[in-house]
Amino acid sequence: MDITKRFAKRVKEARLKKKLSQADLAAKLGLHPTYISQVERGVRNMALKNIEKVARALGVRPDKLLR
After folding, report:
1. Which pLDDT does position 54 carry in this prediction?
2. 3-60 falls under which CATH superfamily?
3. Torsional class of 30: left (φ above 0), alpha (ψ -120 to 50), beta (otherwise)
């Protein structure tokens, strides 16, 4: 599995663990829910700055999302 798909899977897992919808996470980040959907499906690459923001919003370290 490539890094984009692994990242997508981990973002979704962390989001569900926090009981957040894609819309909830998007609102916390100031992003559109469609963007979060694309990230979770592995069709969009996030910039490192956004990876850090997502990790912070989910309460995890960025490296946990990239393992």
Report:
1. 95
2. lambda repressor-like DNA-binding domains (1.10.260.40)
3. left
